[in-house]
Amino acid sequence: MRKPTRTQRAWLRRGLDQAGGKLPLFDAEGRKVPEKTIRACLAAGWAEPWFSNPIKPDWLVCRLTEAGRRAVAEPDG
Questions:
Q1: Torsion of Cα atoms, 49 then 76 then 34 then 61, to 10°
Q2: Strand, coil or helix: 49
Q3: Does residue 31 sit in helix, strand or coil?
Q4: 34, part of any domain
Q5: From CA 69, how far away is CA 13, in angstroms rounded?
Q6: What is the largest CA-CA distance in the chain?
Q7: Does residue 46 carry a pLDDT above 60?
Q8: Phi-psi map region of 66: left, alpha, beta (phi>0 left; psi -120 to 50 alpha)
Q9: Is residue 1 domain-resident?
Q10: How far apart are CA 60 and CA 35, in angstroms?
Q11: CA-CA distance, 67 to 43, in Å (whole number)?
């Protein structure tokens, strides 16, 4: 089974403490999370689209899936 990269894991972990597992659009420094990171997590089933943002339709608003929770619960390695 594939494991998240360090960058993917960091992004996914940020959803653990959010209501509904909402994943952030921006990193801790205020930079937009790269679309490549988001799309890779969607493709792996670790994240899923949550809803469309009518103001910013190009933004991918996502939430953590159960598979994503399991992936970040596993030890780094």
A1: 20
A2: strand
A3: coil
A4: yes
A5: 8
A6: 39
A7: yes
A8: alpha
A9: no
A10: 8
A11: 12
| pLDDT, tens digit, 9 for 90 and up, residues 14-40 | 999 999 999 999 988 999 999 999 999
Cα–Cα–Cα angle for 27, 13, 48, rounded to 5 degrees: 90
**Which tokens go with 57?**
């339709």
Question: How many Å apart are CA 71 and CA 62, to the nearest integer?
Answer: 16
Residue written as token pair 């933004």: 59
Contacts of 75 (CB under 8 A, 6+ apart): none
How far is Cα 18 from Cα 24, in angstroms, rounded to an integer? 9
Token pair 């997590």 is found at 41
Total tally of structural domains belonging to the chain:
1
Domain range for 53: 6-73
Mean pLDDT, to the nearest integer, of 28-57?
90
Give the separation between CA 60 and CA 45, rounded to whole angstroms.
15
For the chain, the first-to-last Cα distance in angstroms comes to 13
